[in-house]
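Let us walk through a complete example step by step. Step one is to write down the protein sequence. Step two is to encode the small molecule, S-adenosylmethionine, as a SMILES string so that its atoms and bonds are unambiguous. Step three, shown after the inputs, is the structure prediction itself.
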Amino acid sequence: MQNHPLPRLDEVPEIGVALQKHCRLQRGEVWADPSGKHRVGCLDASLWEDSQKLVGGDAAQLALHDPPYNLVAFEKRGVGEFVDWCRRWVASTNRVLANDASLYVWIGADQNEGFQPLPDFILMMREIGFHPRSFITMRNQRGYGTQKNWMAVRQELLYYVKGSPVFNVEAEYTDIPKILRGYYKEVNGIVTENLERSNSDKIRAGNVWVDIQQVFYRMEENVNGCYAQKPLKSCERIIRASSNPGDLVLDYFAHSGSTLISAEILGRRCYTIFGDWNISVTPEKPAGKTAIRLQPRLNKTAI
Ligand SMILES: C[S@@+](CC[C@H](N)C(=O)[O-])C[C@H]1O[C@@H](n2cnc3c(N)ncnc32)[C@H](O)[C@@H]1O
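Step three: the predicted structure of the complex.
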């Protein structure tokens, strides 16, 4: 921590207060990018009126959400309470998405606590009007664990759709060359080898992604103080596959702003919520109190 001596700001509120004067947005405000493409709202994902404030009357073609997983890094609640909270932002997402649209949700499974909240979230999703399409696992390079258990290196990504949204399959190809030969098949009387029949000389990512580097401090995209940052490459793969240029992408949990940055790189628009204040999950607390802790966090993001 020699180069970054500040502690986690949510754990030391006094420092948050001291930094407040350097922050640009207040709780409840929405920043609109001057080019008219993107919006960032200091809002609460679980409140429908906040979603409305962010999107106005626009409809999104893709939602890419990465909520806190109810694990130790963020505030931890009973799993029932957590799923009720998720139900609220999923319902808002459903209202904001176009008739043909995709929803991706990163979600964790706590192996020490019945693998919650992954199965609970999946069951809740069965009640809502989305159709499941894929259950993706992304492999981290660094894991955590003990000598008495398998090292935990996975991150789960659920893919749902409503209607019949775009799926650009070319986005699925990795940079990894196909090296395995075999799987011969007769086509029009000629025996062909696997590579001769395929559209690409690279392998498809499939639903187990092993080719994406986890964000760590030496990477250019790393945002100090963001403890749950998703690699831009993962956001880009999702955005390329499930939207077209000019489409609107929704992300209710901005944190480092990885979805927003990827959307900008790929010529999509992005509306995102920066709700990075720990007590946001208890909206009954007065908004004035939340602002004190929210504003300093804005300072340490790339947005
Ligand atoms: C897992 S992180 C998102 C990481 C992000 N995808 C990235 O790449 O940086 C989840 C974020 O949601 C925030 N959050 C928690 N409750 C929220 C709420 N009610 N509304 C909006 N954001 C909230 C957390 O503070 C945290 O920053």
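Step four is interpretation. Residues 278-303 have pLDDT under 50 and may be disordered.
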